[in-house]
Give the backbone structure.
Amino acid sequence: MTPQREEAERFMRLARRDQAAFVALLNAPAVDLAVACFHAQQAAEKALKAVMCLRGLEYRRTHDLEELAGTLADVGIVPPVGVIELRCLTPYAVEFRYDDETIHLISGNEAGRLIALLLTWAAAEIARSGDTN
């Protein structure tokens, strides 16, 4: 197994952990959607970075999902989620963590759908890379 694949798999384990936290928090009483969406953003970020690691792409330290997806698109790898949809999750990484007056940019169901698509896609990319090694 290559170091790139090992790192991609590590990112996927972390993404699944964030996805599980998102689901648990989404269904928890008295938890604001922004708290759950923080974990949705983190799951999406780690799924994108998993594919980037797998393909040997460098990225700067960022939570900007649009930037990460753009880096992938620049080399012909297109995530299954559009830039506009990713843009709705990005603020939950930083801005909304420190704001008690959160504007909800996305519903819990939509956030769940986006991260499910991204994690399924990233896992398939990793599995496909194993078929060629």
Notes: The radius of gyration is 15 Å. The chain has a mean pLDDT of 91. The CA atoms of residues 64 and 90 lie 6 Å apart.
